[in-house]
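[Q] Does anyone have a clean structure-token version of this?
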Amino acid sequence: MLRQALLAAATGLLASFASAQACAALSVTGTGAPGTDLVFTLDGSTAGAFAALAVGDTTGTTTLNFGSLGSLTLGLASPFIPLPLGMTDASGDITRTLHVPNVSSIPGVDLFGQGVTFTFTFNGPGLPTLTFCTTNVVAFHLGS
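[A] Here you go.
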């Protein structure tokens, strides 16, 4: 019995160290000009997962370590801003629209976005597993 419990805990711990896998796709539509909309669509991930968008101005590699829960490697250099998107639908998709205010004072900036979803799995006794799914990195423009 103790042997089975230790095996289950070790299996869960090893599974939790897996890095994020690119298993979804991100698309961004719109010009980002003042008075228009930017639409961020994350497709093909896990149903009911928590979704976020990481936005930065430089591509690269950033690894976030979550201790015993695992790690997440992004295709963006630090610093970046994480923006919560919400929960994915039954198909594992989520879409969010950003309205760019219609003011000429917004300076133009080229940015990069990468979608991330994550789920917690509890498999019996022991540590939960945190599973990440990342998307491709997409360039977009915001402002004039």
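[Q] Thanks! Anything notable?
[A] The chain has one helix and ten strands.
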